[in-house]
């Protein structure tokens, strides 16, 4: 097993990876940009080295700086987390060349699956259904227009090197097609340095259901069940859960088999995710493969009882999977909400500032993965995700109730968060009924439940260190009842819990 592992990432995932490393007796080595100097991922690691600069492009995305630090500090392996360089074949190759193990699949596999056209061709060859469309050799706009007519509208134009919804265009009629291709190409070139695009039939109201897979370097591949990720905003997941309310045991086994076949087709090793669209008619289609640990991996950890980072380390150091498909159990129900520093009422605008108070809920079956603590700065430089709140319980209804309980007790002061929005979402009858699809959020027009907003008087009192914040709040008749209730039953009654940085 490795002795010294560098985590080429920041925030909650760097904190989470360090925890497993330390539990395994491995030295956890962090890197940090200038604004991250005192960040939680630095203070929780065993050693930390600076990547001078602020922006991601001059810090966490600098292969040369990371390899240099790793070499100088006798690192045996690098964990890339998610985002940043985690799906960059060049980074994996640079590690391999420097004699450092990259914790993930081989560089060549990352490269092949990173091109969506190539990935679709590979999986189709082993009988995995793909979204009907055009992913062949034709690349001129004229040729694509002929294919578009054959497929029919609406259709999606996608960037072959795409990710995060970039370079994607929905086209509803032939007249819009040429302009849409040109603009998709421009966006793709700017974001990925490639203007290759392909076409897909637009599936109406699909679910996004993905399978966690794991392969070792001895040819064994299993899946660790599904995650339902249909609740999305602009192709970004907001709530994830397992099991999916849509899967029967038969469909689960069919989709799981397809995911394993897709992984085996490329000789996949380490953690990966095979994403599918699931149509209203029960048909499923391969969407893409993510060659890294996902943000939502804790959902899988909760229902399987496995530590996926530990598995990644064991496999990267040459170990064999210690279980077979039949030995795995999907137990209970897990759900994750992504807590963002954003103003949902103002178009989900990211919110920045110092966390004056930060108190995560605690209780049985509740897990919070976060890179922040009281006093931390939320800056413009990086992703505004503050934390992931994950719950586990026997069934979906109990999980939802537990999630609501936990959201009501999640205290964040200093930035605006989406907690009120998530509470409203969890109360939505369609959500509760499990009737989800990728347009769910737009269609349901969820409006923030402001019940969690503390009365401003309590905040001022707390900030000034005045004893009995609630007493000040109490005198105000202007408080809405929901506010008042929270003020007197929640953490707001305990002014001494807050320290203002
Ligand atoms: P990216 O890699 O840019 O995130 P994906 O191909 O993974 O792009 O798709 C992101 C999301 O876009 C999916 O989760 C789904 O909501 C939607 N989507 C993608 N392809 C289709 C399609 N053919 N029909 C309908 N929705 C789609």
What's the short version?
The protein has 501 residues and is of the alpha+beta class.
Topology of helices and strands:
Blueprint (H helix, E strand, L loop, with lengths): L3 E4 L3 H13 L3 E6 L7 H4 L3 E4 L12 H10 L4 E3 L9 H9 L3 E2 L4 H8 L1 H10 L7 E2 L6 H11 L3 E5 L9 E3 L5 H16 L4 E5 L5 E9 L5 E13 L2 E7 L6 H17 L4 E9 L5 E7 L6 H8 L3 H9 L16 E8 L1 E2 L5 E2 L2 E2 L2 E3 L6 E5 L6 E2 L6 E9 L2 H13 L2 E3 L5 H9 L1 H4 L7 H5 L11 H8 L5 H6 L6 H9 L12
Helix pairs in contact: 4-5, 6-9, 7-8, 12-13
Bound molecules: adenosine-5'-diphosphate (ADP).
Adenosine-5'-diphosphate (ADP) binds next to strand 13 and strand 14.
Written account of the structure:
With 501 residues, this protein is α+β, with helices and mostly antiparallel strands. The chain has 4 domains: 4-103, Rossmann fold (3-Layer(aba) Sandwich), CATH 3.40.50.20; 132-201, 2-Layer Sandwich (Dna Ligase, domain 1), CATH 3.30.1490; 209-444, 2-Layer Sandwich (D-amino Acid Aminotransferase, Chain A, domain 1), CATH 3.30.470; 456-493. 34% of the residues lie in helices and 23% in strands. The strands form 6 sheets. It has an 8-stranded antiparallel sheet with strand order 14-13-10-11-12-15-22-20, sandwiched between helices. Helix 6 packs across helix 9 (249-265). The chain is globular, with a radius of gyration of 23 Å. Residues 466-501 have low confidence and may be disordered. Residues 131, 156, 162-165, 168, 200, 202-203, 206, 208, 232, 235, 275, 277, 287-288, 438 line the site of adenosine-5'-diphosphate.
